[in-house]
Write a structure and sequence with these properties.
Elements: H1 6-18, H2 30-48, H3 58-80, H4 90-116
Length: 117
Amino acid sequence: MKYLSLAALALSAAFYAANVSAQETPQIDFNEIQKKFEEMTNQEFLKIDTNNDGTISLSEYQDYIVKQTLEGSEKSFAQFDKDNDGKISKDEYNGFMNRFTAKIQDAIKKQQHQNAQ
């Protein structure tokens, strides 16, 4: 989805706050976070409620989930298919997975380094 969920936003804020000293802790405007979350939630609800009746039917919800899944699969497929031939070769697959694993390892090392300081 295009937007961060409140949980992701809150976790990010909590994670950041936990990793800085008490003197460096920035002011987090939870009211602003809540306001943005409510705006995102309302926009998402309106996208799902395609007949604009103020409710989301099972059919509308299923259509939305299918659309999101298809869009997500197209984007992730494109990340694998480096030569844009419409196919994922074994080399492309392995290359993507190796890059993905390296990014995770780098993030873990960076966090461990920051925690050690």
